[in-house]
Structures are given as C-alpha cells and as structure tokens.
Amino acid sequence: MRGGLEAQHLGKWVVIQNEQLIGIFDTFELAAECAVTNFGAGPYLISQVGAPPVSLPNSIMYNLVNA
Known about the structure:
Elements: H1 2-9, E1 13-17, E2 20-25, H2 28-39, E3 45-48
Antiparallel strand pairs: 1-2, 1-3
C-alpha cells in the first residue's frame, strides 16, 4: 500500500485499522478526529505518507501490567 500512497498522496495523513486504509486527510487533526470518532481508543494507526519511520528510545517501554 505504501508505494501507491507515496505516488499519489505524499505528505497527506492516513488512518489504517486492521490493515485496511480507512481514509486520507490533509492534516493530522482531521485524521485523528476520524480515528477517534470511529474507533475510540483504538487500535489504529495514524501516519503521514512518506514520513521517515519513528524510532523510540529503549528507555520507553510499555508495561502490560498497567494496561
């Protein structure tokens, strides 16, 4: 899906849920509004088309005990 999105929608924001493209948006705010309205707390992915991957430091850890 990445190649097609980068060719046609570079710089736009996308919402993906369960490996399906939900929508393409001009701003992060519009993408987030769609995601929260449709899926609440998730899971879903909001990503900017063509942006480099985000690397989190090792010091950030998700603790399942507190989830």
